Amino acid sequence: MTVRRIQGSEVEYGIAVQGQPQANPMVAATHVVNAYAAAHGLTRRAQWDYEEENPLRDARGFDLSREAADPSQLTDEDLGLANIILTNGARLYVDHAHPEYSSPEVTTPLDLVRWEKAGEAVMRRGAELANELPGVGPIVLYKNNVDNKGASYGAHENYLMRRDVPFTQIVRHLTPFFVSRQIMCGAGRVGQGQEASVQAFQLSQRADYFEVEVGLETTLKRPIINTRDEPHADPKKYRRLHVIVGDANLADVALYLKHGTTSVVLAMIEDGFLAEEEVELAEPVKALHAISHDPSLRAAVERADGRTITGLELQWHYFEKARAYLDKLGDADPVAEQTAALMTRWESVLTRLERDPMECVRELDWVAKLSLLERYRERDGLDWEDAKLHLVDLQYHDVRTDRGLFHRLDQAGRIERLVGDEDVLAAVTEPPRDTRAYFRGRCLAHYPAQIAAASWDSVIFDLPGYDSLQRVPTMEPLRGTAEHVEQLFAQSATATELFSAITGH
Question: Where in the sequence numbering do the catalytic residues fall?
Answer without folding.
Answer: 95
